[in-house]
Amino acid sequence: MSILNLKGILTPLTALKQMGKEPHTINFPDEQKNISKIYRGFHHNDLDLCIGCGNCETICMNDAIDMISLAEIAGEPGDSGLRPRIDYGRCCYCALCVDVCPSGSLNMTSEFMKVTPDPYDFLMTPGKDNPEAVDKLSFTADMDTSLNLFDRVPMRELDPEERVKSFAEVFLGYNEEEARIEANRCISCGLCTENCPVHMHIPEYINAIANADDEAAIKIIYDNNDLPEMCGKVCTRRCEDVCALQVRGEAVAIRWLKGYATTRAENAEMIAEIVKPEVREPNQYKVGIIGAGPAGLTAGYYLALKGYDITIYEAQKDPGGMIMYGIPKYRLPYDSIQKQVDYMKKMGVKIHFNTKVGKDISFNEIYDNSDAVFMGIGLQDAWSLGIQDEDAEGVWSAVEFLGKANAGETPDIGKRVVVVGGGDVSIDCSRVSKRFGADVFQSYRRRIQDMPADPEEIEGAEQEHIHIMPQTIPTRVIKDEKGHVKGMEYLKAEMVSEGGGRPRPVAIEGSETIIECDAIIAAIGQKANYELLPKEIADKLEMVKDKIKVNEDRLTSIPKLFAGGDAVKFGNSDAISAIADGYAATKAIDKMLMGK
Question: DSSP per residue over 224-253, as a string?
Answer without folding.
Answer: S-S-HHHHHHH---HHHHT-GGGGTS----
